[in-house]
Amino acid sequence: MIRQNKNHMNVEENMQTQEMECCVVCGITTDVPVDTPIENRKTYMECVGQLCPDCCWELYHTTDLRTRADV
Question: Could you tell me the pTM of the whole model?
């Protein structure tokens, strides 16, 4: 049981130290690691950059730009 808790802590520590993308509109830190390929990012706008879900919704009325043909 202690081993599982220690492993769980290591995962959380890695997530906290992993570099995350910032929203190009509002500047907040997103939950998207910088090493995530752009084709796997729900709120990435080509030639613009990473958006947070709130800004993506405000601008495009969706939280997954991969499903839109017009962007």
Answer: 0.72
